[in-house]
Specification:
Elements (H helix, E strand, L loop, with lengths): L1 E6 L8 E7 L5 E2 L9 E5 L3 E7 L8 E4 L20 E7 L5 E7 L5 H6 L4 E6 L1 H6 L7 E11 L5 E2 L4 H6 L5 E4 L2 E2 L2 E5 L2 E8 L6 E5 L5 E6 L2 E9 L2 E3 L4 E7 L8 E6 L27 E10 L29 E8 L2 E4 L14 E2 L3 E9 L11 H4 L8 E2 L3 E8 L3 E8 L8 E2 L17 E5 L5 E7 L5 H4 L13 E4 L3 E9 L4 E7 L2 H6 L2 E6 L1
The protein binds CU-O-CU linkage and copper (II) ion (CU) (2 copies).
InterPro entries: Cu-oxidase-like_N, Cu-oxidase_C, Cu-oxidase_fam, Cu_oxidase_CS, Cu_oxidase_Cu_BS, Cupredoxin
Protein name: Multicopper oxidase type 3
Organism: Methylomonas methanica (strain DSM 25384 / MC09)
């Protein structure tokens, strides 16, 4: 099959327009009234050709987030094309059934292009999934969550102040599938919701308003082994959730709202429990609705939730090529810049730690390179050269900081708009071992290529109130390609690097951070 994707160009909206040249009719599904690109549906094993025609006045390239494809067709910024140019993608669908994303990946302008509308969902189906007979057709509903800011003409506003880049850009309207005030009329039976956080920076804590548990059947990389019930689930930019929601037993007329619930600890100033500063009138971590549901139709039968979904072979450190020496992914939160492994993004700057032997399974550790006496034997921050400059904060005014937990786990309040006092210097505020971060925030770290497994998480310091407000919402038992790394946290993952050599990016999926250079390449060789 073959489709053409045509990024268009309205005044402020940028859009993927697609037409199917050849292939099954269900390959493309338009979301009615939406600026989002159509849903692309593929089968495992399918051979795919996609022609990207760039009709923007700027360079772009499309990346297939989550898909295991050759480096040359992964949407690396090296392959960005200019106005009027065409890029031809050809690959075979190797992924298992899963929800993935397509979005632009040109260096420095990814966030802006995604914000203005360039994004869409990819649903991959396979035989294993088909056998489960999960709700499909009108009972399988995509839920693409984004936040946006509008001016009084209802046009999108996107700012790029240094502050928005540091914290991420936040809108004050929640859109689902590109629509405000999203609402679903449902029948009294089970549904499958395919949820994707396509916001540039906003993190959600999803829960039903009547405290019905959230039933998760899959994550980024497809189905879990068995369903997991949670009172809430966290969803960071780039992450997906496959939710089972059963309305049977609910009366016609009954309502349910999916909300984002209160939490803290993901932005500077939030560590002590506050919501942190990011200049939005819809604060991250406040309580607000995402969409509403109303039961409008009584039906007599509904599929039952399968208790066995899939088989996932769990990796252990012993299965990796480097059980003693995890590949470091160091988060450096420096003055006015966010980078990985201490270095801003460049195409031709592969460091020894970033060379991965082809056809291996690697143990990797994501950690905050600054912050905190990691007292143990491993000191990855220094070992891997993540040390850069001291914390100098030009252009930001600082307010008081609050100690928490007896001087451990330090939160910092920062206020926007103190631009006049450049060059505020902040000493490194850590004392003995077990001290928390300063100016630290949560980062959704995404790796291109194959899905990975999360081996474990640990905290460098004591658990903060903020951490406690999110920790039960991580779904870790399945395949992932994006993981939310909280301040002071170390996350060990195991990832295969098979089938394809070449450059595969890893970056923060806070897209403002990505564009600031919080991105590196692994060279698989
Ligand atoms: Cu969703 Cu490298 O991106
Ligand atoms: Cu990706
Ligand atoms: Cu980040």
């Amino acid at each position: 099959s073959s489709i053409g994707i045509l990024p268009g160009n309205a005044t402020r909206v940028q859009q993927y327009f697609a037409k199917l040249v050849k292939g099954p009719a269900n390959t493309l599904t338009q979301l009615p009234g939406s600026y989002l690109g159509p849903i692309l549906r593929f089968q495992k094993g399918q051979k795919i050709r996609i022609n990207l025609h760039n009709q923007l006045d700027e360079v772009t390239i499309t990346h297939w987030h989550g898909l295991h494809v050759p480096a040359e067709v992964d949407g690396h910024p090296l392959y960005a094309i200019g106005k009027g140019e065409t890029f031809v993608y050809e690959f075979e669908m190797l992924n298992r059934a899963s929800m993935n994303i397509y979005h632009p990946h040109p260096h420095n302008t990814t966030a802006k292009q995604v914000y203005h509308g360039l994004a869409g969902a990819i649903l991959v189906n396979d035989d294993e999934e088909k056998r489960l007979e999960l709700p499909d057709g009108e009972f399988e509903i995509p839920v693409v969550i984004q936040d946006r800011l509008f001016d009084n003409q209802n046009q999108l506003i996107y700012a790029r102040h240094m502050h928005d880049r540091m914290m991420g850009f936040y809108g004050d309207r929640i859109l689902v599938n590109g629509l405000p005030n999203f609402h679903l009329d449902v029948a009294s039976r089970a549904y499958r919701l395919r949820v994707l956080n396509a916001s540039t920076a906003r993190i959600y804590k999803l829960a039903w308003d009547d405290n019905t548990p959230i039933t998760v059947i899959g994550t980024d990389g497809g189905l879990l082994e068995k369903p997991v019930k949670k009172s809430y689930v966290m969803l960071a930019p780039g992450e997906r959730l496959d939710l089972w929601v059963d309305f049977s037993g609910r009366k016609v007329g009954s309502r349910l709202v999916l909300r984002s619930r209160e939490f803290s600890g993901v932005l500077p100033g939030m560590m002590g429990g506050g919501r942190g500063m990011h200049g939005s009138s819809l604060p991250v971590g406040s309580d607000y609705p995402i969409f509403s549901v109303k039961v409008v139709r009584q039906v007599s039968d509904s599929p039952a939730l399968p208790q066995k979904l899939s088989i996932i072979k769990r990796y252990t450190a012993a299965d990796t090529a480097n059980p003693q020496k995890p590949v470091p992914i160091g988060i450096s939160e420096g003055p006015m810049k966010m980078v990985l492994n201490g270095r801003p993004y460049a195409y031709d700057d592969i460091q020894p730690n970033e060379r991965i032997p082809f056809d291996t399974v690697q143990l990797m550790e994501i950690f905050h390179a600054h912050g905190g006496g990691h007292g143990g034997a491993s000191k990855p921050a220094t070992r891997h050269g993540g040390e850069e400059s001291g914390h100098k904060m030009g252009g930001m005014g600082m307010r008081g900081m609050n100690h928490e937990g007896g001087g451990k786990g330090m939160g910092m309040g920062m206020r926007h708009g103190g631009g006049e006092q450049g060059g505020h210097k902040m000493g490194r505020m850590m004392g003995g071992g077990g001290m928390g971060m300063m100016m630290s925030m949560a980062h959704p770290i995404h790796l291109h290529g194959q899905y990975f497994q999360i081996l474990n998480r640990s905290l460098d310091g004591p658990e903060s109130k903020g951490y406690a407000s999110v920790k039960d919402g991580f779904i870790e038992g399945g395949w992932k390609d994006t993981v939310l790394v909280m301040p002071g946290e170390r996350v060990r993952i195991i990832k295969p690097f098979q089938d394809f050599k070449g450059l595969f990016m890893f970056h923060c999926h806070n897209l403002e951070h990505e564009d600031m250079g919080m991105m590196r390449d692994f060279s698989v060789e």
